Every structure is written in C-alpha cells, then in structure tokens.
C-alpha cells in the first residue's frame, strides 16, 4: 500500500482551449474536473496502476466534500482531516499547442490543532504502508519544518518516505534523511542556489542534496528525461513522446510509477519515465493506466550524458 499526504489539496478544473487570448471570450473545446494536489495525483496514479493507496488530506467546505467523492469514485481510500476553511479550487487552461496556464488558489489556513490532527492521521494509517509519499506545497499556517517533523515521526515508526516539495520545506526536511526526494529541474536549481545548464549540472546538484541528507534523488528534467542518483549509482532515462496534451500531474505520475516499481534502482526509474511520458499525452490531469504505458520507448543508461545541454536550462 502507498500512503499519500497532501497538506494543500484542491479541486482542479481543466479547460482545453484553442488559444489563450487576453480580453477575449474563449470557448473551451473540452473540460474536466479532478481532485488535485500532488499527493492526490500520486494516489490517483497508484490506483490507476491497480495498487492500493490511501490519501490523507485536510478537507473543508463544499469543494472538500467533492474532492472526497471524486477520489472515492476512483477507488481511492480517503482519510480526511476536517478543517474549518474551504478546500481551494484551481483552474488550468490547456492550449492546443501544449502550453498550460494555471491559476492556483492559496487554500485555507490550518490551525495548530488541525496540523497535529493531520500528523496523527498519517501515524494511524501508515502501519501497513510500503511507502509514504509526502507531496506539494504547505498551506498557510504550516511552518517550513512541518515536512521535516513528518519525516522524522515516520522514520521512527519504520516507514519509508518519498518527498516531493520545494524551497525551504525541502531544505528543512533533508536533514531528516527522506528516502527519496523528487525535484524538477527548477526546484533542483533552487535547492542548490545556482543555474543548471547540462545534465551533468543536474547530477552534481542531486549529489549535493544527497550530501545534505537525501538518500536518493529522482530528478525530472522535463523533456530531457529523468535522473536517479542514489548510493547504488547514477542512471539517466528518457522516452520518446508523441503529442503533448497536458503536463498537469505528469511529475506525480512519475513518482507513482517509481514507487509501484519498488522505489529504487534503474527498473523503478524506467517505470517512472514510462508513467510520466504516458501522462503528458493524456488530457488534463488524467493518470495513465497500464494500457497507456509504452515501456519499449524508455531508455535507461548508467552512461549519463553529462555534457548534454538541457532543452530548457534553468537560470
């Protein structure tokens, strides 16, 4: 079982539009409504893969009730923590050329009692979890050290932790030794405080995060592929992708693919890339099912192309 923790979940509305013209009336060609938040997306991808998952998340108001209903309809066990504020609603506009514009609401502010209830819910539901995936931004009210406290408590209980967050929350949690962290290129550059121009730059940055406490780093480099840097070695993987429809949740699908494949080594990296590649070819934040995966298009190598210039360098 994979337990996910989403401190700042959302109700996500995605509209497909021909083009985004400011000041004009735009008629959508398609629309979706999905439960959102990075941990929620990981649970959705795990469920789509046919594995059991439990989603721990604070929910409030009518949007929160709808998120719970949508998750339940997808076969996901929900462990809600009731909060006074309403769950946030986000909007994504997906253009025909693959460009995505997102409007993310701030979400409710959690009280000290609500924060502790969230930690307690994780403790109660984590006894039979193979992995705990802690994902996304922290809502108002939570200190940057909240994830660090969660990692420390979970490790004391013998659980393995995958962490997907950024900024001060990521840096604070590194000292507690999360089993794997999953930054994208921008988050990786922000963590080490310097630009990334090549795959080799990304490898060095990942190694620095390991030096700060992360046991493994699964780094997404966008269209260029993904890196896995761990005690067991360094691997690079990429996949050929057809038409990109939406990258919403693609990184979360990758993390789910990594965890359902065991969460370590080149085999898990290949699964991560296959899931991410499938996700970007689906509308909105639809999570890939096994039939959507094309593992034959994935290449994994320990001969990392360190001199390759990133398609989208991070300044």
Secondary structure topology:
Elements: E1 2-5, E2 10-17, E3 30-36, H1 38-48, E4 53-59, H2 61-73, E5 77-82, E6 88-95, E7 100-103, H3 112-125, E8 131-135, H4 146-156, E9 161-164, H5 167-174, E10 180-181, H6 185-192, E11 196-198, H7 199-211, E12 216-220, E13 226-230, E14 233-239, H8 250-260, H9 265-279, E15 298-301, E16 309-314
Helix pairs in contact: 1-8, 4-5, 6-7, 8-9
Number of helices: 9
Task: Tell me the domain tally.
Answer: 1
Radius of gyration computed on alpha carbons:
18 Å
Q: Secondary-structure element sequence?
A: EEEHEHEEEHEHEHEHEHEEEHHEE
GO molecular function, one term: ATP binding
Keywords: ATP-binding, Kinase, Nucleotide-binding, Transferase
Protein name: 1-phosphofructokinase
Family: Belongs to the carbohydrate kinase PfkB family.
């Amino acid at each position: 079982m994979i337990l996910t923790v989403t401190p700042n979940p959302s109700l996500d509305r995605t509209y497909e539009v021909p083009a985004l013209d400011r000041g004009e009336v735009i008629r959508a060609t398609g629309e979706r409504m999905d439960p959102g938040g990075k941990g929620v997306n990981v649970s959705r991808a795990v469920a789509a893969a046919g594995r059991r998952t439990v989603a721990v998340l604070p929910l409030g108001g009518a949007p929160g009730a709808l998120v719970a209903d949508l998750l339940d309809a997808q076969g996901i066990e929900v462990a809600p923590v009731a909060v006074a504020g309403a769950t946030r609603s986000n909007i994504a506009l997906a253009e025909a050329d693959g460009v995505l514009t997102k409007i993310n609401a701030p979400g409710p502010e959690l009280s000290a009692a609500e924060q502790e209830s969230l930690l307690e819910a994780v403790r109660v539901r984590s006894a039979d979890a193979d992995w705990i995936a802690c994902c996304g931004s922290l809502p108002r009210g939570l200190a940057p050290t909240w994830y660090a406290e969660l990692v420390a408590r979970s490790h004391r209980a013998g659980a393995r932790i995958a962490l997907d967050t950024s900024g001060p929350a990521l840096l604070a949690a590194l000292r507690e030794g999360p089993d794997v962290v999953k930054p994208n290129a921008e988050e990786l550059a922000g963590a080490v405080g310097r630009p990334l121009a090549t795959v080799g730059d990304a490898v060095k940055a990942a190694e620095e995060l390991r030096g700060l406490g992360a046991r493994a780093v699964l780094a997404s480099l966008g269209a260029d592929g993904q890196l896995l840097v761990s005690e067991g070695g360094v691997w690079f993987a990429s996949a050929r992708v057809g038409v990109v429809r939406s990258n919403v949740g693609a990184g979360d699908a990758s993390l789910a693919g990594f965890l359902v494949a065991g969460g370590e080594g080149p085999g898990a990296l290949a699964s991560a890339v296959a899931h991410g590649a499938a996700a970007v070819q689906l509308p909105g934040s639809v999570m890939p099912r096994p039939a959507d995966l094309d593992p034959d298009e994935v290449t994994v190598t320990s001969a990392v192309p360190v001199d390759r210039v990133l398609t989208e360098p991070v300044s």
